[in-house]
Amino acid sequence: MNKTPLYITMGLLLVSAVFATGAMADDAVPLMNPLVSERSFIGISYAEEVEAISIPDMGYDKLQVKPSYSYLQLQPGETSSVSIIVINRDDEAVTTDPIMVLQPYTENYLEEEWVTVTPSNITMQPDEEKEFTVEVAIPDDADLGYYNANIVFDRSSISEDVGDIEADYKISSIYYGNSLDLSVEVWIPPSIQVSSNYINDKVEAGKEYDYEIKLVNVGDRDIAISPELISSKMSPEISYYDPGRASFDEVFGEDSITMDAPSKVKAGETATVKIHMKIPEGIQGSYSTSIDLGIDDPALNEWENQVQLYLNVWKQPSEPFTTEFSTFSDAPVSIEVSTNQYEYSGYEGGSAKQQPSFDIVLKKGAQEVELKLVKTMSKGSVNFGNNDVVLYSSVSSAYKQYSTTYTEVYEATGGVGEWELSILSGNTDNFEYSITVGDSE
After folding, report:
1. If you write DSSP's letter for every residue of 269-335 in order, what string do you get?
2. Contacts of 131 (CB under 8 A, 6+ apart)
3. What residues contact residue 440 under an 8 Å CB cut-off, 6+ apart?
4. Cβ atoms within 10 A of the Cβ of 82, count?
């Protein structure tokens, strides 16, 4: 018996009965209320009755503020302003008396004397529209960072759930309207420009690699640096996705990564942080950690002061890949092998990529068959319209190569029988092959 129509019918009857009950019972709480004079939060459970929780109206919707959010980016000593349109949506006159209220969990406290709202106190008639100006003046000694607050135009709309915090500011837990959400970032332009904030490379176990990070000082004073390795315990590849895998610290010893850098970057000059890596033997997989450049530039965010290091470690196999196939004619056999090598960008320097190679053996039965190399091809993928931002003048080329495909084509005399193909690649961790019997054109 198909139970689906029965379930649908019972569900429709239940919904109809619930709505009918809410409409017919005068003393019952209706399921659906117009959100005009109160707000309802409805919780529905399969095992419990429908329950409505009403919160009294506190006048949150008397005034409409447009825009309701504004973001300003200012340097110490700068002043900026934003125009706000306030509309009285209430059916009675409303007196506006703007007040600044700090938001929970703000990074910095926006001082009241930094913000001026004009006009400061007016009475707005129903449907009246008024333009206000919110001016923010940042003092010369202001701390860098983010400041968040609400400019509330109707004080009666402030939640009663408030408390005093540092400097007697009020902090409110919730707002529904009547306010401007004001976000201010106080910043200064950085003096140090970092060529790249990540090193992403595919490396082979047991080999050594060199990388360079260039730091350009565009300021007018020398800036100290002190690069050091950060623990990788919070590496996402290890801590979250594969908790049982060894971490970077457990695999790479203290002598695996060495750095050479000056103690400061002189004004107007470029310095180079040299990173040398010894990849341990017998490991494979993905590893990551971070390098803190230790740049004494307060304008840089924490992540801008770090270089993320991502390594995909592989090991060249010593045994060849083998596959078998059959032929049913005397047509020649063509073998094509190719590999893709991707450029792991994000750093300067690094070891040069070596030419890939293939050691190919073809057997018919137990007899090795002579292979003739008839073609080699090299194909690249180049982009010049979507390059990374260049921060230093030593880079002159607008082209960036992302990948290279290297291909070799071999031919052999054919014949009916069973065949075995063996391929041992070199200087690459991937390859594709194809076997063609007959004319390959």
Report:
1. -EEEEEEEEEPPTT--EEEEEEEE-----TTS-TGGGEEEEEEEEE---SS-EEEEEEE-S---EEE
2. 83, 84, 85, 86
3. 334, 336, 409, 411
4. 16
Q: At 347, is the pLDDT very low, low, confident or very high (cuts 50, 70, 90)? A: low
Q: How far is CA 278 from CA 160, 227, 255, 283, in A?
A: 62, 18, 8, 12
Tokens representing 59 are 């006048």
Question: At 348, which amino acid appears?
Answer: E
Q: pTM score, two decimals?
A: 0.62
**How large is the average pLDDT for residues 258-262?**
95
Which tokens go with 352? Answer: 């040069």
H or E segment to which residue 250 belongs: helix 248-251
Longest CA span, the chain:
101
Strand pairing category for 306-314 and 198-204: parallel
Cα(410)–Cα(435) distance, rounded to whole angstroms? Answer: 10
Mean pLDDT of the chain: 79
Token pair for residue 224?
A: 């100290």
Reply yes or no on whether the pLDDT at 234 is more than 70: no
Q: Are 108 and 145 in contact (CB under 8 A)?
A: yes
CB atoms within 10 A of CB 221: 10
Helices (H) and strands (E) in the chain, counts: 2, 33
Which residue, chain included where needed, has tokens 């047991």? 206
Residue from 58, 7, 37 nearest 178 by CA:
58
8 burial level (CB within 10 Å; 0-12, 13-18, 19+): exposed
Left (φ > 0), alpha (ψ -120 to 50) or beta: where does 326 sit?
beta
Nearest in space to 229 (alpha carbons), one of 297, 309, 164: 309
